[in-house]
Amino acid sequence: MKAVILAGGLGTRLSEETTVKPKPMVEIGGRPILWHIMNIYAASGIDEFCIACGYKGEVIKEYFANFHLHLADVSVDLGKGKVTFHNSRAPDWKVHLIDTGAQTQTGGRLLRLKPWLNETFMMTYGDGVADVDVKTLLRFHRSHGKLATITAVRPPARFGGLSFEGDRVVEFIEKPQIGEGWINGGFMVLEPAVLDYIDGDDCIFEREPLERLAEEG
Q: Which of 21, 48, 56, 100 suits a disulfide with 52, CB 3.0-4.6 Å?
């Protein structure tokens, strides 16, 4: 099974970092966000990835093309032009890096991956890490027989709360979870047939395609 990761957006909210690299390549703990996302899937046995590149996609391609250089000790024989890697910690992954255009929307990026997607696949975004039980998500999807399964979360409130007794504060509540309303948690399981709901590069997957799928049940 493949995991699709949409990694082509501009990342405008991290502009200081993303002037030189795409948002999925911003580092957490010395490794790109993208690497951490891939490890979430790899922990559940998914080791083949389709990365939908766009804005500064060459940075992502360079990272994986020279993956051993980033993780291993290296000996270079300049006279022979030979490079030897030592103690490489590269995982046993297969990574497909596909250019899906700098301005393409999420649906369009997914549609451009159609030649690579001929069976059930995972999909997520290249800028979000979460504690997701991928195996349980897949079992849920298969047991319901639908074209798409998405994770849903209740977002925390923007501000912390206070509890009072009279005019005295008795408790601080740091950004409590909202009691009502769910948002897209960002991790999905999809069937190839969902691509038939996408009509081109300007299609935003989270709008018409997912809305139609929800209406159809």
A: 100
